[in-house]
């Protein structure tokens, strides 16, 4: 009987893990975490990520696509924004470029890392994967506009010295980011919802998997609440171990911008795992919805939040990308365009995206 109870508790780990993570977060918040404790927090962080993915999939099965991908992308990005702002407020002058570094890292991770992994996994199992080119083309166009207005133009404006934007320019970028993101969400969920469904489902039953049993409303609401709890725990625990991460990076002689890359990697773990699982089930459209949706949410929600936080933040806010990152951004847009336009992809496209992502990581460590 005891074994059955143990198995029942083990089967419910996705319910207990977020609560345990928040409890641990309350103990370590605002305190210096020792190296040994940091390892334990990192393990709990990974478990919380897996729990967040599970609950996001439950919500996704209930609401269907593209709402399921949108729920996870927005939830993760809202917490990411809170993490960036809190680190910038407490970090002082050394964090003036943290928002830029984290947002750009998120774009590279999603548009090259997640897309590349999903395409490789999908094409290794099915040789050629198909997706809706209309929706992915619209998503990529929005990402290109958001990234250019928010990250590329400040590197060339002359109102302020250095890669910074004037208050008026930052205000315009914030309004444009919110407006473009809202317009995309309207297109994705209302006016052209079919564009973001798998080609075989467009025009058919929206979001209903052929063999997927929809969770009950009660289970869906519970999973939604636990998803938010898990995401808060993920970002909170990531912030708790961030001093240990910064110390390790400094000891290794790595540049400060690597902190933004590490933050983006941690926060985007739930979407990465969810995208990989979708690709293994030959649902590459969901993988791309997650990747591109996360990139848009990262820019469209972070830049307005940083613009508002700029009222309280001291010192300049560095947003403009350097020449190396501008080249990587342009290369990403070109390659992604050539990938999504045909509506089909092979192993080659996945490999190209992964090598561009590898180049980004290499240049982040050794600029």
Automatic annotation (TrEMBL):
Membrane topology of this protein: Multi-pass membrane protein
Key words, A-Z: Membrane, Transmembrane, Transmembrane helix
Keyword Transmembrane helix listed: yes
Residues covered by the Sodium/calcium exchanger membrane region domain: 37-189, 223-364
Cell compartments where the protein resides: Membrane
Parts of the chain that traverse the membrane: 12-30, 36-55, 67-91, 103-124, 136-158, 170-187, 224-245, 257-276, 288-312, 318-340, 347-365
Pfam family, one: Na_Ca_ex
Highest taxon in the source lineage: Bacteria
Name of the protein: Ionic transporter y4hA
């Amino acid at each position: 009987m005891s074994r059955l109870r143990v198995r029942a508790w083990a089967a419910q780990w996705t319910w207990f893990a977020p609560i345990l993570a928040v409890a641990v977060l309350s103990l370590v918040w605002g305190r210096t975490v020792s190296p040994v404790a940091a390892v334990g927090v990192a393990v709990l962080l990974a478990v919380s990520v897996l729990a967040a993915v599970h609950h996001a999939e439950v919500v996704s099965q209930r609401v269907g696509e593209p709402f399921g991908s949108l729920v996870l992308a927005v939830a993760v990005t809202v917490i990411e924004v809170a993490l960036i702002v809190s680190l910038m407020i407490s970090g002082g002058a050394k964090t003036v470029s943290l928002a830029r570094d984290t947002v750009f890292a998120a774009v590279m991770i999603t548009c090259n890392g997640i897309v590349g992994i999903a395409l490789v996994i999908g094409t290794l199992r099915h040789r050629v994967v198909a997706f809706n080119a209309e929706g992915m083309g619209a998503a990529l166009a929005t990402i290109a506009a958001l990234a250019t207005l928010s990250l590329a133009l400040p590197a060339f404006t002359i109102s302020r010295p250095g890669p910074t934007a004037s208050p008026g320019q930052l205000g315009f970028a914030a309004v444009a980011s919110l407006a473009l993101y809202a317009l995309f969400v309207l297109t994705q969920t209302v006016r052209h919802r079919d564009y973001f469904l798998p080609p075989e489902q467009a025009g058919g039953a929206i979001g209903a998997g052929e063999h997927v049993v929809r969770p009950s409303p009660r289970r869906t609401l519970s999973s939604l609440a636990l998803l938010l709890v898990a995401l808060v725990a993920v970002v909170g625990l990531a912030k708790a171990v961030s001093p240990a991460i910064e110390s390790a990076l400094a000891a290794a002689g790595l540049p400060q911008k690597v902190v933004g890359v590490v933050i983006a990697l941690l926060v985007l773990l739930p979407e990465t795992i969810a995208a990989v699982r979708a690709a293994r089930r030959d649902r590459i459209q969901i993988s791309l919805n997650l990747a591109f949706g996360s990139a848009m949410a990262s820019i469209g929600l972070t830049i307005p939040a940083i613009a508002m936080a700029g009222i309280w933040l001291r010192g300049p806010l560095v947003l403009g990308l350097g020449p190396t990152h501008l080249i990587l951004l342009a290369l990403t847009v070109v390659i992604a365009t050539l990938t999504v336009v045909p509506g089909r992809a092979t192993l080659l496209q996945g490999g190209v995206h992964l090598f561009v992502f590898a180049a980004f990581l290499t240049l982040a460590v050794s600029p």
